[in-house]
Each structure stands twice: as C-alpha cells, then as structure tokens.
Design brief:
single chain; mainly alpha; 0% strand; 23% helix
Length: 66
Amino acid sequence: MASWDDAPRQRSRRPRWPSWCSPLPPLSQYVSEVEFETSDEAYAQFQQQDAELSASVTPDQLPESF
C-alpha cells in the first residue's frame, strides 16, 4: 500500500519576487524607503512627458512594469 512518504517530492512553489522588489543590502545604507506609483499615476506622468504619443495610448495598453 502506498503512503504519503512514497509520493514524489516537489519543490516548494513559493512566489519568486522580481529582483527589484527584494531588499538590496548594499543599497540599504543609501536608500531608506522605496515608493511605487499606481498605474493611474504612471499614466498621468506618461501623458505629461510625451503628449504626442500619449494621445493615441490608453492606460490599459501600458505594460505592468511601466
């Protein structure tokens, strides 16, 4: 009879954070806080920086990492 101990082991499926999300020990002496902007704030900033291009771009067309 099979038991749980006989089951193949799988690697843990912990979420992997992008490298820019993890704390950077060498930089922590220079950076005390990291702030992120919302997609609406990013789109507003994009509209101010590139008025010609932003006229034809909607917020849902911007990449998540923008």
